Predict the 3D structure of the following.
Amino acid sequence: MIEATKKILCITNNFTYKEQLRRISSSHPNISLIFVSNISNAILDLQTKKFTLIIIEDDCFAQNVAISCQLLSTLISLCMNQYTLIIVPRLDEAYFTKYIQKGFTYIVDMTTTKYLLPAVLKYIEEFKSQRPRPEKISHKGLILDTQSHYIIFKNCRIQMHSMWIVILHFLIKQNSCCDIAKIQKYLEIIFERSISQSCISANIHRLNKRVKCATGIDIIKNRYGVGYYLVL
């Protein structure tokens, strides 16, 4: 069986960084580096393509503050901040504070990247799948058990399909109406396969039906032209 190529989006203008990243990844034939220097193009790529990892050079954010904030918001909305490496000029408190408060934890300089990235590429599946995740999530009276795939709502324990748990978790993190295209993009990142919008709509319908049978409540509603939201 041929292993699928894993795409890594690299947002940088730095020629030296590009060469170093190419050198690091050269021993991994199943890894494809996609280099982008324009943040607007990077946002479009994130919205239309699937990436295993994102690498961003901090200097790129100097291009345009507003568009840089949009890039970070896009990464957070797709939960890709968990799989993003931000390369800063030096390791100091100012850079850690700048990004950690936005939910990014992999903040490195290029020297650190030389040692960290080869290990990530070598064990990329473990990097993605074995990150610590909360077993139980509580939100406005709804409890999700992400490991055992059940929810507790209105004093009822209801078994869930794994995709239903992911949809509920995503809507909790968004905490607002979310259009189906954004849900689709997130599910495709998590499950690493194409998922149609009709499949998502059908799963949300089945999820609602399962919860309504137990509690009498449609837990997810759809606001026409805006998107899906939790009723809690």
Observations:
- The mean pLDDT is 87.
- Residues 11 and 36 are 5 Å apart (CA to CA).
- The chain has nine helices and eleven strands.
